Structure formats: structure tokens, C-alpha cells
Amino acid sequence: MSGANAKVVWLDGPGELALREERLAAPGPGKVLCETVVSAISPGTELAAWRGLPPLRPGVVYPRLQGYCNVARVTACGEDVESVVEGDRVLSFASHRSHHLLAEADILYRLPEGADADRVVAAYLFHLGYNAVLRSDVRAGSKVFVIGLGALGLASVAMAQLAGAEVYALSGQAAPAKLARGYGAKQVFARDDASLDTLAADVVITTTNGWGDIDIALHAAGQNGTVACLGFPGRGEPAPETNPFDSQYFYMKQLSIEAVGWSPEHDDSRGFNRFNERANIAYLARLIEDGRLDPAPILSGRYRGEDIARAYADLDARKDDAVTYLLDWN
């Protein structure tokens, strides 16, 4: 059993992408060697690092690996691997790279025969919207307002609609507004629409970073509503001119404002973390395979893995109203 030469994407600094070759050893016990079939760009996270926005947590910022939506084919298995065999395709959080070694425990999902890797690779992007819906207690009949219609915003619209909510959205661009309506949004507002003050949403899901959109969220939320933040309010911006915790909104409406980007990674031994990351991703992958969830509208095109710099530049320029891209590694 031999290893492989891997081409790996590194971000050395803002705008400084490099494709480096690394030698991978043969898989040891409990590990599998994989050849990437396709990876998907998570535009919010990846472009923020590429642009040089402030990091979300302390520590070394660069160099860093990019990406975490990866479907690969198993080419070799180490000893004691039981859940997959050579030739199986697996979904994982591996970065953008041609090959990788993966612990069996880090396999998120094994794709069944015939499943479309191009669609299943986007499952985690929808998981973030799904987690926002779960964490903010969206139920059938809830009024949900999604701010921002990038990949996460559109995923949140789709997940809220699937949960039975009455979904509204906000965007200043015609193309994503059309996609949101395709995912079930009843209406897409412009940012200067005065009727937002009377929307009275039960849940507002914010997927952008601007303080101005937080102000809109506070206006649009109803009494005892929830503002669920998938974005990072104020990231890369100066302090806001208005108080986001102004008493007329935060206190008088009794709003809950919470971060909803993380979920438990695993269930616990007694099932208290039932809606954990792995279970959620497997559920969404099955929805994609069954045709009940279609990632195609947010997958705007594809590039070779080696051309990731051009893909980032085109996403940053919003070329042809792109939402995100796939990267081919075969």
C-alpha cells in the first residue's frame, strides 16, 4: 500500500493563495487515503480570510488551509477500518486539496451508489441554515425574515420553508431575490422598505456583517422575537453609530439575540445532542438525494481546483451573480 502526492491550497496572507505539493503516507490503522472528487467553496468564511477581514478567534491567522466541504473517493484503507471500503465516496471537512488522509471517525457521511457528489458536497452550507432554524425554535407557521441572500441566506430560506415557516427575505439584488423566491420566500424586501418596521417576524436570521442590517433586524423583529446571527455583526466595520441594544428594541420587545453558527459535533451517550452536526448533515444529504432539497440554485459554476484564485476573484466581483462554485480535483 502506497501513499499519494497531494496538491493542497494554502492562504499565506490576504489575497495570497498558493498550491503546494505534499507527500501523504499510506494510511495507518483507523485511517483512509482519499482522492478528492469535488469540493465546494464556502464563500462567507473563505472570502473573509482571503480579503483579510479580522479573524474570528485569537491565534495564528496565516498561513491557513481553506475550505471544509469535500467529497472524496477512498483509494486505500488502513487496518481496523470498518465503515467504508476502497471505492466508496465520503463527505468530510477536508480542505481544498487533491488528496488527503482521513481518520475513519472524521467521515461525516458515506455517499450511496448513484448519489450526486456535486450536490451532496453542499450539505454543510445548508446545515448552517438548518442549525439556525433549530436553534431559534422555528416551527410551522412561524414568520421568518432572512437578511442577506448569499449562500447562507439562501440556505436559511430553504430550511425555514422546509420547517413550515412563512418566509421573507432582504436583498438589494434581483438575481438572489429570484433564487430566494424559488426556495419559498413569499416576499423579498429592499433595505429601504418602510414596511419592514411592521413585519413583526418571530425570527430574524442575519447572514451579513453590517451594523446597518442589525438595525433592520431589530426593527423587523416582533415582540418576544429572536435575532439569530449567522453573520458576524460589525466584522471589519467601525463601531456603530446607533446602539444595537437600544431599549426600544432589546428591552421593550424582549428580544433574544444569539449566535447560531455552532452545534454539537456528536450525540452524547444518552441522546441529549440528538440534533448534532453529523446527524444533521446526514439528514440533509438524504434530503438532497431524495430530491426534497436542491442545492443547484446556489452552485453557480465550477473551476479546476488549481484555479481557485480565479474562482475567489469572480465570487468577490459577483461575476454573473454567482453564489458559490464547485472545484474539480479529478
Automatic annotation (TrEMBL):
It holds the Pfam family ADH_zinc_N. Keywords: Metal-binding, Oxidoreductase, Zinc. Residues 151-262 form the Alcohol dehydrogenase-like C-terminal domain. Its cofactor is Zn(2+). Gene3D superfamilies: Medium-chain alcohol dehydrogenases, catalytic domain, NAD(P)-binding Rossmann-like Domain. PANTHER family: NAD-DEPENDENT ALCOHOL DEHYDROGENASE. Belongs to the zinc-containing alcohol dehydrogenase family. This is Alcohol dehydrogenase-like C-terminal domain-containing protein.
